[in-house]
Structure formats: C-alpha cells, structure tokens
Amino acid sequence: MFIKNNIILIGMPGSGKSTIGVLLAKETAKDYIDTDVLIQVLQKKTLQQIINESSHMNLRHIEENVLLSLKDSNKIIATGGSAAYSEKAMQHLKKNGHVIFLNVRLDELNNRIHNFNTRGIAMNDDQSFQDLFNERFPLYQKYADFMIETSDMSQEQVVLEVLGKLK
Asked: Distance from CA of residue 128 to its chain's centroid?
C-alpha cells in the first residue's frame, strides 16, 4: 500500500512556504526540504543569478528537474513559486504527498515582498506581480489537495490549520 506522507507547500513568493515548512518540520518531526535552496546549492548560484545569466524559463526548467528528482518520503517540502507550471513535477509530488496551497491576498503579498528585483521570481520582464498572481492562482488551485487562506493568520495558526486538514 502506498502512503502519502509528504506535505508539499505551494503558493506565491511571499506566501510563507519556507517559514511554515520549517515550523511544520519541527511540529511533525519530519525532515524539511526547501527546493529553492536545493536549486541554489546544486547550481552554486542564487535564483536571481540563474535568471540573470540565462532566463526565468531556464530557472523553471531547473526547478522541474529538481522536483522530479525528489524521491523522498515523510518530508515537508516547500516548493518554489513556479513549481505549479510543471504538470509532470506536480503529479510526481502528489504521488507521495498532500499538496497544500498557502493562499495569500495580493495586497498582503505586496506588503511582504520588498526585494522583487533580487528575489529570483521566475516571471517575464514585462509581467507585473499582479499578472503573475493572476496567472499562477488557477495552477495552484488545480494541484492543491487543500487551500488555506493565510493572509490574516499567524504562523502558528497556519501550522495548526495545515495539520488539521491532514487529519
């Protein structure tokens, strides 16, 4: 019998995936993987350097390969914001885990993110953050087993809500 025991966090940059991932790992005694950090370690470059030296589409390609390489079990996995662009990667992750969409209102995301030009956000040069939000939202909904509106929640409330959804 195949057990879905990973918790996979998806959502926009600034939605709290990395922070909530660490807290969930502590709460559940599971290992934690941040795929953005994994990409940076493997490439020996920041996400922004990858974009600057090649393109945002190359970053998405690298991200897809990293996600497809994950064979882990019993982990908390915080994905990059663009993970949902890859049908193949998302289906791979869903095989052994529950996908949680940490949804945050656009106005709140704009309050949280202050480093748009250096954060390594995989988006077109002519695209606004709102355009990106509008493009990605349906993808996150498509792959999520559960969506949690976290805009007005504390980190502890989000962790409890995620754990509650999985019971």
From this structure: 19
Q: Tell me, what DSSP letter sits at residue 144?
A: -
Q: pTM to 2 decimals?
A: 0.96
In terms of DSSP H, where are the helices of the chain? 17-28, 35-43, 47-53, 56-69, 87-95, 106-112, 129-143, 155-165
> What's the number of domains the chain is made of?
1
* Residue 69, both tokens: 């390489």
Decide if 97 is inside a domain: yes
Cα 58 to Cα 20, 47, 63, 123, distances in angstroms: 27, 10, 8, 11
Q: Find the CATH number of the domain harbouring 90.
A: 3.40.50.300
Asked, for residue 41, whether it belongs to a domain, the answer is: yes
CB atoms under 10 Å from CB of 140, counted, come to 23
pLDDT tens string 25-43 = 999 999 999 999 999 999 9
Q: Does residue 16 fall inside a structural domain? A: yes
CA–CA gap between residue 161 and residue 144 (Å, rounded): 15
Q: Which residues of the chain have pLDDT under 50?
A: 1
Owning domain of residue 137: 6-165
